[in-house]
Amino acid sequence: MGFLGVVGFAGYVLLGLFQIAATFDGVQHLLGVHWLIAGVIGLMLGAFPVIGTAAGVYGATAAWGWSLLSALGLFFGPLVVIAAISMMAQAGGRR
After folding, report:
1. HEC letters along 15-77
2. For the segment 23-34, what is each residue's pLDDT rounded down to a tens digit?
């Protein structure tokens, strides 16, 4: 694994940790439960992409004070980047 692979993996792990923390904080803020209980519930909600993402976006906005656009960027930004890279790769192969 080269340098970019290590940086990409580290970024992927860091992004995942932020998303998990936002989901935990969203559950804790919404339900008012202890962080340990919120963690267990957040892990269960994370198994369902739409519900887990909604809890994470809620956590980033309500608990962390982020704007809605920033919270959506945390969860959907990587998809936009991957789609852009994929389209550029396909366009480059057509030459």
Report:
1. HHHHHHHHHHHHHHHHHCCCHHHHHHHHHHHHCCHHHHHHHHHHHHHHHCCCCHHHHHHHHHH
2. 999 999 999 999
Q: 88: which 2 tokens?
A: 């550029």
- Start-to-end CA distance of the chain, whole Å, equals 29
For 37, the token pair is: 């209980």
Tell me the HSE value of 85 on the side-chain side, using a 13 A CA sphere.
Answer: 6
The DSSP output letter for 94 is T
Distance between CA atoms of 46 and 52, rounded to whole angstroms?
4
**pTM for this model (two decimals):** 0.84
